[in-house]
Specification:
Oligomer: single chain
Helix content: 40-55%
CATH architecture of the largest domain: 3-Layer(aba) Sandwich
CATH topology of the largest domain: Rossmann fold
CATH superfamily of the largest domain: Response regulator
Strand content: 15-25%
Mean pLDDT: 90
Largest sheet: 6 strands, parallel
Number of strands: 14
């Protein structure tokens, strides 16, 4: 019985909620109970539970248990909703940062145009992206809106995307796209964002500007590209030696494992361009722990203009990410493709907007 696929448990759980007439916030079965019912390992059940949680069928509360969500009950009641009007949305993250705004923009447009939305989260893991794509396709969605996982790295889902393309399924990427794919996307112009924030630092009189960028997603590469374009335009040719690259999964650890390297880099800089606001705010904490004053000793700039930018200890100069508008644009692109029965669509790139706050010191 161990070969019992976790997807079968997912389908069983949805039927169980419907048959038992469970209501929102009713307690759901435990992992142990599911193991006993289906005769499978804890690992298989955990995969099923993760999928149910990603689809917002259940909610797990540490120390309290697992509960049925309102969405699960709605899905059980509104069973007649036609699959052709359902769109699959796959995001790397959801619970925080700019992601809820993007998804809200998508959901608002889809709802206004008569479509429902199925949401899945990959946590920026390629395997979870595979599972999400397969789950969406098996559920009969009429189109997909996808944020790619680790978009700058080789991807084992290449063949799956080719099959989606060959099937005529409309798909729009958001925030980034795989360079090898031929689907359209909606995104902020990340190269322009990196260039704009770096240009501002030069305008403020900084010459020794460092950078911290994500190496495993294409946004990091493009923001770095804009950073370098600005440096070369200002006749500063050695800037690439003052760049620190990190893997997205390590973003919360870099200020520990690379402490000495970062301190050496900062010692030679008056300003730093960070891949995003989260990195910038973590850098501020790192500076405080190491007696580096912001902005007196070091100016720090972020990208995305998340809600944290204006409430951190030193309000952060950042480039605004058009999150909700971007999500809405991706949804409009997809609906247009669905209703025209045409997979061609122009990319949508948003021009970034600079938001100036107190984290930059003017040297001139």
């Amino acid at each position: 019985m161990e070969g019992f696929k976790y997807t079968a448990i997912v389908d069983w759980a949805k039927d169980y909620i419907k048959q038992k007439g469970l209501k929102p916030d009713d307690r759901f079965l435990t992992e142990k109970e599911l193991c006993t019912i289906h005769g499978v390992s804890r690992q298989t059940v955990r995969q099923a539970m993760m999928t149910l949680e990603r689809e917002n069928i259940i909610s797990r509360v540490r120390g309290s248990g697992t509960f049925v969500t309102e969405r699960a009950v709605d899905a059980a009641v509104v069973t007649a909703a036609p699959a052709k009007k359902s769109v699959g949305v796959i995001s790397t993250y959801f619970s925080d940062y700019i992601f809820p705004h993007i998804v809200t923009g998508i959901e608002s447009v889809l709802g206004d145009m008569g479509y429902t939305m199925q949401l899945s989260i990959t946590h920026n893991q390629v395997l979870e992206e595979t599972q999400a794509l397969e789950s969406m396709l098996s559920s009969g969605v009429c189109g997909l809106i996808v944020e790619p996982s680790k978009s700058a790295l080789p991807n084992p889902n290449t063949e799956l995307y080719k099959k989606i393309r060959a099937s005529g399924m409309p798909l729009v990427f958001f925030n980034a796209k795989y360079e090898w794919s031929n689907f359209p996307y909606a995104a902020m112009d990340d190269a322009a964002a990196g260039r704009k924030i770096t240009d501002y630092l030069f305008d403020c009189g900084h010459k020794d500007i460092a950078g911290i960028f994500a190496l495993d997603d294409i946004q990091g590469h493009k923001r770095y590209s804009g950073f370098m374009e600005s440096c070369l335009a200002h006749n500063v040719k050695g800037s690439e030696q003052n760049v620190f690259w990190y893997a997205t999964a390590d973003k919360s650890k870099i200020f520990t494992y690379a402490k000495d390297k970062l301190l050496d880099m900062l010692d030679c800089a008056t300003a730093v361009v960070c891949y995003n606001d989260m990195v910038a705010i973590n850098l501020m904490r790192f500076c405080k722990e190491n007696a580096i004053r912001v902005p007196e000793d070091l100016s720090i700039a972020g990208i995305d203009d998340s809600r944290y930018a204006s409430i951190c200890e030193v309000p952060l100069t950042s480039v605004h990410h058009p999150h909700k508008k971007l999500g809405a644009a991706a949804a409009k692109m997809l609906v247009s493709m669905i209703e025209r029965k045409d997979m061609s669509c122009d990319d949508m790139l948003f021009e970034p907007e600079l938001i100036v706050r107190e984290s930059i010191r003017k040297m001139v």
